[in-house]
Amino acid sequence: MSLSTLLKNNTNELHSTLDNRIMQLQPFANLSHYQGFLRMQLRIHTAAESLYQGDYYQSLLPDLELRSRLQAVAADCSDLKISAELLKQDKQKADSIEINNPYTGLGWIYTVEGSTMGAAILLKQVKKNLELSETFGARHMAPHNEGRVIHWREFKELLDNLSLTELQKQQAVQGAIAAFEYTINSVDECMSEAVLVKC
Fold it and tell me: How many CA atoms lie within 13 A of 141 on its CB side?
């Protein structure tokens, strides 16, 4: 079984849980809710950024650093005027994540990259409900120049062409599971907080 299929099969339930939890908290109901959504995104992309910039992963996945969306997320946070104090808290939370196993890191990258596909639907909601766009407030949702589907397919092909043992593949699966669990926790912390503040 290919690595991308293995990762997908082992995270389907977590993926559904994450999607449902995000939508329950209505991220596009108003700007306060959306700020919580952005803070969650900042945590995830900050936690994974060292992987995107690392020489080891760039040697396995060419042009990986060009896929990083951290700067776009940070710009969105600035657009929405999220306080420096909250951003500091989120970065500290993200920096507490340690990804020491190289194959676990592949699972994290898979999870972060996979979110680019769902961003197509989210971007439509952002534009419709909040009047934000790929150039203001929703930069991190912008598609790649060659298109989301092609970009994602190319990434999966790179993963699937890696020569990994079964143990290494399982370590990648554990990394993807950890990334989803961290994301779900971040949703609860950042987005639930935004809802409470609004109420």
Answer: 21
CA distance 111 to 44: 10
**Alpha carbon distance 138, 16 (integer Å):** 23
- Per DSSP (E only), the strands in 33-165 are none
pLDDT at site 194: 60
Residue 163, amino acid: S
| Residue 19 in tokens | 């999607």
- For 62, counting Cβ atoms within 10 Å of its Cβ (0-12 exposed, 13-18 middle, 19+ buried), the class is exposed
Structure confidence by residue, pLDDT tens digits, 43-77: 999 999 999 999 999 999 999 999 999 999 999 99
Q: Which residues, listed in sequence order, are joined to residue 77 by a DSSP beta bridge?
A: none
The answer to whether the beta carbons of residues 12 and 173 sit under 8 Å apart is no
Q: Token pair of 17, please?
A: 């849980």
Model pLDDT for residues 168-194, shown as the tens digit of each residue = 999 999 999 999 999 999 999 999 866
Q: Which CATH architecture has domain 3-198?
A: Up-down Bundle (1.20)
136: β partners? 133
Domain limits of the chain?
A: 3-198
